[in-house]
Amino acid sequence: MPSLKLYFCCRFFNLILCFADEGRNAVDLSGGVQIVVAHLQTLCSNIDAANQKLLTVFCGFLLNYSNDNDALQAQLINMGVIPTLVQLLGIHSQHTALTEMCLVAFGNLAEIESSKEQFASTKIADELVKLFKRQTEHEKKEMIFEVLAPLAEHDVIKLQLVDAGLVDYLLELVEEMVDSNKEDDVSELKTASDLMVLLLLGDESMQKLFDTGKGSVFQKVLSWLPSNNHQLQLAGALAIANFARNDGNCIHMVEIGIVQRLLNLLDRHVEEGNVTVQHAALSALRNLAIPVLNKAKMLSAGVAEEVLKFLKSEMPPVQFKLLGTLRMLIDTQAEAAEKLGKNIKLVERLVEWCAAKDHAGVMGESNRLLSALIRHSKSKDVVKTIVQSGGVKHLVIMATSEHVIMQNEALVALGLIAALELGTAEQDLANAKLVQILHKLISDDISAPEIKYNSLIMICTIMGSEQLRKEAQDMPFKEIVSKLRRHENKLVAQQALVTEQRLVIES
Fold first, then answer.
1. How far apart are CA 150 and CA 194, in angstroms?
2. Pairwise CA distance, residues 150 & 195, whole Å
3. Largest CA distance in the chain
């Protein structure tokens, strides 16, 4: 009888909740939430059929009460409902209606960031994976996927899911669905492979699955690259990009020939290819190119030539990764930087993308690559190519970036332009207001020491140009430079002394 009263009481609460915020406020003020949560915790272990029906209604109440309301979801989390719901899922896993309602309640709460710490302290990973493995219907698997996805964003839960065997089961699902054209199977294949890639975003879970390159998961994703299934190609390339997040893994993967597999994949997508696959494969190559030991090997393998095939792409995500890959490849590689820096088609495309204001990432990477070509090649021919293609003004603008690293890269590149080809570049430097920008950089208190230092060097270098020297003489450089002799940074102070002497000589 008490159970029946509770059942109808909770159903009544659910009816009140139909009146949206007014209903929620009424239930909250009456203490209804506390009553339901307390009974849920008390009756959680009771496997009587009538009690399971009551628990199902309780879970429905929690969903109706907090759905689409962050504050009420946080209230339930603070009341400790998550450990109770996880316990309930384990005890009543054979009761379909109750487990489904429990999963919906999980999905509602899992989106809240504060819930993830609580979930991580429970056995949610074990319970969900056990439940997942028992499902045969697509709809039921989809419900579990919808809970797993937000939970798997938490690094501790990622590792727990890996330990619970989720990845092995996902791989089995992929194998079952890969040759099917059924809509549900295609959807399940995508969800399973996407979730597996998500699990690789955690450092510990990724390293566990990599297992020094011997992990079965790592071996399996390699077999996806030559697949004819675009989803598997995408997942395989993304997985490699995620495995390539530390130098040790990158060096091992290059040693065992992963680069050629990625190049083969890219080559299949040059003409009207799949943009997501292009983006993923380029991401993997960019990451692999970061360790110094890999650069020469990847250049010898023809990575730069393959990447250049995508210069004609009009897709910003592909452009962004293409630029990043080339920039990583030429870092400290003078010969490669010179070869690419003399490639007129590449340089003209970079200059075009330097003005892509609608795509800040592409614009930033284009500027950085333009600078890198000069800095790593130190070649007069490269400087001439960039000057003649209209790149100087973009490097001057880059020197005003809000990012210190980009400012510094621009100033070093401009210094090399002035040192190697001042006569060729002086008009472009003047048109871009370089002298005024250098004045601002050394005057501005917020400029980093390295920016002041390189700006002071640049001031000395441009004294070789009559036009730029006259511009500098018309501005109050001497006073500012004199003050910088007392700068707390010794390098800045020393360079200020040298620059002051040069200004005196040229006056």
1. 12
2. 10
3. 103
Q: What is the full DSSP assignment across 451-498?
A: HHHHHHHHHHHGGGSHHHHHHHHTTTHHHHHHHHTT-SSHHHHHHHHH
Q: pTM for the complete prediction?
A: 0.88
| SS3 label, residue 182 | coil
Q: Rounded to 10 degrees, what is the CA torsion of 177, 182, 187, 192?
A: -10
**The residue to which tokens 């990447």 are assigned:** 307
Structure tokens at 44: 């959680």
Token pair in block for residue 270: 């040059």
C-alpha 142/C-alpha 191 separation (Å) is 9
Distance CA 222, CA 264 (A): 12
Q: Which of 436, 404, 398 is nearest to 417 (CA)?
A: 398
**Nearest CA-CA partner of 340 in 308, 315, 317, 368:** 308
- Tokens linked to 420: 């190697």
Query: Which amino acid, one-letter code, is at 254?
Result: V
| 3-class state of residue 331 by DSSP | coil
One-letter identity of residue 477: F
Q: What is the rounded distance in angstroms from the CA atom of residue 458 to the CA atom of residue 416?
A: 9
Q: CA distances (Å), 28 to each of 12, 197, 451, in order?
A: 14, 41, 58
Q: How far apart are CA 296 and CA 305, in angstroms?
A: 14
* AA letter at 167: V
Going residue by residue through the chain, which has 507 residues, state the pLDDT in tens, using 9 for 90 and above: 345 555 545 454 554 444 456 556 666 665 667 877 887 888 877 778 877 887 888 788 777 777 777 888 888 888 888 999 899 888 888 888 888 888 888 888 888 888 889 999 999 999 999 999 888 888 888 988 999 999 999 999 999 999 999 999 999 889 888 888 888 888 899 999 999 999 999 999 999 999 888 888 899 999 999 999 999 999 999 999 999 999 999 999 999 999 999 999 999 998 878 999 999 999 999 999 999 999 999 999 999 999 999 999 999 999 999 999 999 999 999 999 999 999 999 999 999 999 988 899 999 999 999 999 999 999 999 999 999 999 999 999 999 999 999 999 999 999 999 999 999 999 999 999 999 999 999 998 889 999 999 999 999 999 988 899 999 888 888 889 889 899 999 999 999 999 989 888 877
Helix (H, G, I), strand (E, B) or coil at 223: coil
Residue given tokens 């998961």 in the structure block: 217
Tell me the residue type at 102: C
Nearest to 25 by CA among 13, 35, 37, 36: 13
Number of alpha carbons in the 13 Å side-chain half-sphere of residue 478: 10
Distance from the Cα of residue 302 to its chain's centroid = 26
CA distance 62 to 41: 13
Cβ-based burial of 374 (10 A; exposed 0-12, middle 13-18, buried ≥19): buried
